[in-house]
# Entry
Amino acid sequence: MAHLLLKDVNKVYPNGFHAVHDFNLEIMDGEFICLVGSSGCGKSTTLRMIAGLEEISSGEFYIDGVLANQMSSRDRGIAMVFQSYALYPHLTVYENLAFGLMLEGIDADVIEEKVQATAKILGLTDYLERFPRQLSGGQCQRVAVGRALIRKVNVFLMDEPLSNLDAKQRVTMRSEIKQIHRGVGATTIYVTHDQTEAMTMSDRIVVMKLGVVQQVGTPFELYFYPRNLFVAGFIGEPPMNFLNGKVQGGRLVFDGEEGKTIDISHIANDVAALEGKEVVFAFRPEAVNLVKDGKEPEEGYTFTSKVELTELLGDNTNVYATVDGVNVILKINPHDTPERGSECVFNIPFKSAYLYDKETELAVETDIVRH
# Structure
């Protein structure tokens, strides 16, 4: 295991492109960290600086308290798993796993023991004599993980290792990588654009946008307490719904012809401070409760929408609707699926509603406990 510390780390390329801005993060021994964000957000560049494959333009990077900016990749005690597997096609699975140990001059008996132990952990014992071309994508990925695992390093770096797998293989490999992490205990940094991978695998998530860290927190914290609009829209599937409006006379007046208003004192600590501001009212698709005919709405905010499209997914139905011309997605019980073109009335509990300052894009302070 290893303790990592990044202090004000920047990456600026010779052409002037600033890829990573003032990256600060402390990673504890044995922690599983995910870096997430859209393509080009700087997550892979950050990983490569940690690995020593990219030079740090400014800032400091420490491994167990030792400054590692100028330390070679070989001396950092790091193993990296790439998106492309990077297996040697002319070598068998056994030889791919053993290759790094052979370069270090380790005795053949020790290599045999380590290869067999690693193959057993990853379920590769029956494939040791096969070549990569004879393996499935999931099996190739296990070999790539095994090649890193066999070195007994303190830090694993994984750069979108599951992106080449199909949906079923991704689910299987997610659980396998997590189980391996628990068994080995090595500090792990995992880069992905898939927020589902980040939510299911990590101890903490780092959300990045255009090279800037937007929020760091546990999956629970990021899902229920997103600190800005980007995180709110990025974390969660389907994404969070946003309705624009302006605070007037202590109430939120929504944009649109109807001019619907709501009392935001339930979800904002200081309503007076928001007077005259443009804000964004937000809620997650699964947070809604349908209001059926003759039923009194629950405590919260009630909206009427027009159903445009429905998607039955088995355990739930995604309802694509409009609220005063604005598109929203509702995630509901499939037995309550409304007809296309019909009106759908839904309620959002106060604890499930969010408010953001449109100018700063930051969450408005509230004392609500969300769950």
Observations:
- The mean pLDDT is 91.
- The radius of gyration is 25 Å.
- The first strand starts at residue 4 and ends at 12.
- Residues 34 and 205 are 5 Å apart (CA to CA).
